[in-house]
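Rotation project, supervised by the postdoc (A.L.). Task for the rotation student: set up a whole-complex structure prediction and record inputs and outputs verbatim in this book. Inputs entered:
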Amino acid sequence: MTTALPATATPATDRPPRGARGLTWTVLRLHRSALIFWCLAVAAATGVLIWMYAIGDEARRGVGGCAEPVAVDGLPSCRAMEAVTADDTYRTFIALIAGALSYAIFAVAAWAGGALIGRELESGTAKLAWTQSVTPARWLAAKLAVPAVLLTAGTGAVTLLGLWARGDDDPNLVGDWYYPDVFLSTGPTAVAYPLAGLALGALAGLLLRRALPAAGVGFGAALVLYNVLERYRWEFWPTVTRAEAGGFELPRSAWQLGWADSLTRATFHPHSHFWPLQYVETCLVLTVAAVATLAAFWLLRRRTT
Amino acid sequence: MTTALPATAAPATGRPPRGPRGLTWTVLRLHRSALIVWAVVVLGGAAVLLWAYGPGADAAQAEWDRVCAGREACVWGDPIHDYDRLFRAAGLGLNWLPVLVAAWAGAALVGRDMENGTARLAWTQGITPVRWLAAKLAVPALPVAVGMTVLVLLHRLVSDAHPLSLGKWSWYTEDNFQANGTVAIAAPLLALAVGALAGLLLRRALPALVAALVATGALEELATVASRNLVPWETATGTGYQSPDHVIVQGPQGALTSTGARVPNPMCGDDGGTCLAAHDIVGYYTHYHPASHFWPLHLVETGLLLGAAALATAAAFCLLHRRTGAAV
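Outputs recorded:
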């Protein structure tokens, strides 16, 4: 090992040539258990989703209309449909991945508050780092950027794989688009939420400077953000109102919000509002993330100058 | 302050007269923020449930009378949605509190004290390790048990008095099952014991937090599955799968032969008749737990959880004794 040293050693007058890479490496090395956990989680989700894609066609044979007692008009017999079990497996695992994606924000916020920032400030290793030619701002930038890149790559990949594994989006198998878990796991919100969790957790860590309270407060902040957005999600895009004398029915794909005048007037979001709703919510969540990040840097600067 | 000292000071030869109270006080004082958070959680949960029982239920009933009474189909508005949301949030909270207790016990109660050495400091201050751990477990156990009991009783109160009879609100449904009985009180006690054991084993706060969280979740799930199979299933039989009313959980299903034997469903598919005859299938059965199994299921699961808690506590004391054997 000693023979390798001269190659990486730099003149004392110059900046270390591989500074950023060194700092990135430090962050990765320090949080290696979280890194390993994240890699395993993404790998497991990838495996499950490929498997779901493989049994997708079989699962779709297990739902829909059926005929009794024998198959007619292209409808399978109900007995044959009952014999298909792939639909239960498919439904369960697709829902599991959707749930994991939409709740990832809580784990990320608690981890960022506790392990990423809070523990470092509590034990004083952050201060030690700041004396080793790493400025506090660069330290925080690395602490946020490295996990942000890994989170974005992981959640982005799992979301895209999920869309692929969902096939034709049969709501009997994968749930309706407006269910909270489905909504949060099928668009850019799936990437934005964990990033907001990261920023909120980091801010909690800098504010409280202790691992466990910061983990708790980061978790709580994520819980508030999640529930507020779920409550007001439907207001992020103008709704459609339809009125017909004598009453009418809406298709299942409509997110029904309210009926009035004895079922002759309905307020709802048609399926086509999925993307506008996704974009507005993503922007809101990313704004929260940006504000929390700015607040964290501002707080750090006030503390360290 | 100095004048007050002689009153509390004990003779050096005897035990401190208010020893346990002093240690209890230390634990309460050290974990005062947790105590405050717990009080807020319990009072907040109680407030939500009392709101649902009183004004919430009244508003939901009024909304029902206004838009739905006497109609075949109707879509109701906010009062019923708000009632539903808060009632289900309270149930969800009651089901997840044990996991939070586990995280806290693993990390803050024991793990952190082991990590930064304050436990060792305490053991040099006339407190034996065994008494230290006993206080660490007993002092939080009381407020946890009392708080959960209050919340469970209030949850039952709301569950018994729903303004409308929506199926998903019924007291025996799987959603409400845990929050309406003793399991909800036993689970956080298990969480406390598992958290303490994880803290002693790992001696670091954050790893103990994760371990306690995962272990408690897994043990709860295990106890649920085991209790369902320990309480004898009811069986419904017929020419197809049956779906009996008022069911808490549905269990395994299968086929019946002419001798009455229970066999796996042969999955005959389209050519029903000949295939069924070849397998000698005359009907199908479904195992289930009816609403009347509510208390047997609860008591068995509570027993399992408390047994696991006792084992975890014993293991924690054993571990502590082995580690500090010389010091005791």
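Student's summary: Chain A has twelve helices and three strands.
Supervisor addendum: Residues 39-55+72-232+274-304 of chain A form one domain.
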